[in-house]
Structures are given as C-alpha cells and as structure tokens.
Amino acid sequence: MANHLSPELDRYLVAHHASRSPILREMEQWAKENDFPIFGPECGRTVATLSVAIEARRVFEMGSGVGYSTVWFAAAVGPTGEVVHTDGDAANTEAARGYLDRAGFLDRCRFLNGDALELLAQEQEPFDCILIDVNKTQYPLALRIATEKLRYGGLIFTHNAIWSGRVADTSDLEPSTVAIRQYNRDAVDHPELMTFLDPIHDGLAISLKVGEAHAAVKQL
Ligand SMILES: C[S@@+](CC[C@H](N)C(=O)[O-])C[C@H]1O[C@@H](n2cnc3c(N)ncnc32)[C@H](O)[C@@H]1O
Predict the structure, then answer these.
(1) Does 214 map to a domain?
(2) Which end of the chain is more exposed for a tag (fewer CB within 10 A), N or C?
(3) Cβ of 89 less than 6 Å from ligand 1
(4) 212: CB partners within 8 A, 6+ apart
(5) C-alpha 88 – ligand 1 centre gap (Å)
C-alpha cells in the first residue's frame, strides 16, 4: 500500500512492523483474500503505541470494518478501557464481534451500527483517541465532530491521509481526493490541533488536541 516508497524499503518496513498475534495475522490474510481495506500493522503499531503513551481508556472508531483496527486499540486500552466499534454494515459488525471475542477483548468493546459521524455526535463523554476511517468525502465533517468530542491531550488518527499519493497531484479532482486534501489542510491549520502527516501505509494523519497551556507549540 505504501506505494510512495521504493518496493525494497516498503518490504523492509512491512517486515519490521509485522503482527505477531495469530488473530491479527488471520485478519490480514482474510482482508488480502477478500480485498477488504484495513489499516495494516504499521498503523496498528503506531496507534497502539501512542494510545498507551497517553494512557487512553476511551477510544471511538469511525469506520471499524471487521474490527482489525479495533483489536489494536482494545489491546492498548487495557482491561478497564472501552473501544467503540462503528460500522454502517451489520455484516462487518458481526464479523468484528467474532474476531474480538476470539482475541479475548469482547468485554471492552461496544458495537454500534449506523453512520459513525451521527453516532459520535450523540456521545456525551469525551474520548482519549478517535480513529477516522469512514467514506473519504466525509473526512472534513468527521474532523469537526471528532475534535469536539476529543479531550485535551487526546489524539485523532486518520487513515488514508496520502491516498496513494493522490493528495499531492493537484490535477486529481476526484471527490475523495479533494476531501482528504481538505481534511489534511484543516487538521494542520486547526487552532486546537497539532498535526503531522505520517506517510506509513496509505498515510496516517495524527493530531494532538492542545489547549491554551500549549499555545506556543502551535506557533512553531
Ligand atoms: C477502511 S474500512 C475500516 C477499516 C478499519 N478501520 C481497519 O483498519 O481495520 C471502512 C469501513 O467503514 C465503514 N464506513 C464507511 N463510512 C461509514 C460511516 N459514515 N459510518 C459508519 N461506517 C462507515 C465501511 O462499511 C467499512 O467497513
């Protein structure tokens, strides 16, 4: 997926980030065989590391699919944490339940069906981490809702931030590309977010919500 890298470097990074968990490997194989998009072990390792670093306990996923990303977050939040899995397709939710059960994390997951943006807007308590991986044209609106529902010091992770490199091709005006480009601009310019665009996999935008106390970092 990381087609902006040389094939050799891509293979090297993929080999070093490979999952060790049998259930994750099984899901990766299933996703490959069924051409189902997952954010892969590179993003998984990144979100899990940073979630542990900020001691995340409450995670909301916008677009969870069959639960591959959910497994990474569920491991990171620990036994007292909660990960909200959302998907518009009930078949994906059922598949995710099965995988999370077999991974031993069912009790720390909440499964919601419907539009992830609407579902997040209905949540009352703030989240430590939010994943954005829905339809790409929804990204700019998803960012606004996610920022509002995120605690200060929390992280937003957004998959497909480079969209196979198409974000940099200004002649590409396909709606998904335009929306991701808009997302990246909004996330970088947002007055409360410190954002960087990590080119791993298909790109992972990582935004830290910063308050007044860290206003100086936004001037850098
Ligand atoms: C790229 S896949 C998710 C992959 C998952 N995050 C992972 O890395 O394992 C995107 C999923 O989001 C779902 N989806 C897309 N837009 C959505 C929306 N607005 N609300 C809920 N689910 C949505 C799709 O049905 C699909 O299963």
Answers:
(1) yes
(2) C
(3) yes
(4) none
(5) 7
